[in-house]
């Protein structure tokens, strides 16, 4: 059974710092991996999707990497801003068209 | 274009009552998912619809939960005889399952259900 773990559960950094959020999964046979952002009381916003054949994806200040063989993904946020404060969720889809399996998230707080 | 929409945004009900939650997926998306987010439990899958195929109901926690998708578009999640442990945020997602999209799922804002 696929399990997804995110470390740390919470992270506080000053504005301007670069930071890395970690995600690990137990079964390396995945179809894709998605990173989401969730603001308090809101739904999920898709940030990046990495296909199983890819190693990384970039969008603006965000870079997500995928190492299937070790069951790990990282989300790198460059030059963090207070507006980046949110909960970041990692989710894997084991086979095409199946449900996402989520980690419990990392709650990020960026202070000005 | 419009994203996934859900209604109501908030629902407060009394224990034992039935509730219906609605999801309007992104137009043209063939796949629709329901998830539940409970405090301290994280996001868990409930049910999945894909085209005209039989839905995957493997995540439904009890037979009090059911869902339907009419005309391949709008979906309704029904919870009968609600219990306090049903209190959670219910999230709907849709995707265009296919090679080009790699099944990226897009989420609605959720319905916060409180059972008193």
Structure notes:
The complex is a heterodimer of chains A (112) and B (116). With 112 residues, chain A is mainly β. In chain A, 0% of the residues lie in helices and 57% in strands. Chain A has strands at 4-7, 10-14, 19-25, 32-38, 44-51, 56-59, 62-67, 72-77, 86-93, 100-102, 106-111. In chain A, the strands form two sheets. In chain A, strands 2, 4, 5, 9, 10 and 11 form a six-stranded mixed beta sheet that branches. A five-stranded antiparallel beta sheet of chain A has the order 1-3-8-7-6, with no helix packed on it. In chain A, strand 7 and strand 8 form a beta hairpin. The mean pLDDT of chain A is 95. Chain B has 116 residues and is mainly beta. In chain B, strands 2, 4, 5, 8, 9 and 10 form a six-stranded mixed beta sheet that branches. In chain B, a hairpin with a 3-residue loop joins strand 4 and strand 5. The radius of gyration of chain B is 14 Å and the shape is globular. The N and C termini of chain B lie far apart (37 Å).
Could you name the key traits of this structure?
A: 112 residues, mainly beta, 0% helix, globular, B: 116 residues, six-stranded mixed sheet, four-stranded antiparallel sheet, 10 strands
Provide a concise account of the structure shown.
Chain A has 112 residues and is mostly beta strands.
Q: Percentage of helical residues of chain A?
A: under 10%
Question: What is the number of E strands of chain A?
Answer: 11
> Looking at the structure, what is the overall shape of chain B?
globular
Q: Using a beta-carbon cutoff below 8 angstroms, give the protein chain pair with the largest interface and the number of residues from each chain.
A: A-B, 25 and 26 residues
What assembly state would you assign to the polypeptide chains in this entry?
heterodimer
The major β-sheet of chain B equals: 6 strands, mixed
What characteristic shape of chain A results from the CA principal axes? globular
Structural class of chain B: mainly beta
Helix content of chain B: under 10%
Total number of helices of chain B? 0
Class per helix and strand makeup of chain A = mainly beta
Work out the helix count of chain A: 0
Mean pLDDT of chain B: 92
Provide the residue-averaged pLDDT of chain A: 95
Q: Radius of gyration of chain B over alpha carbons?
A: 14 Å
- Strand elements of chain B, count: 10
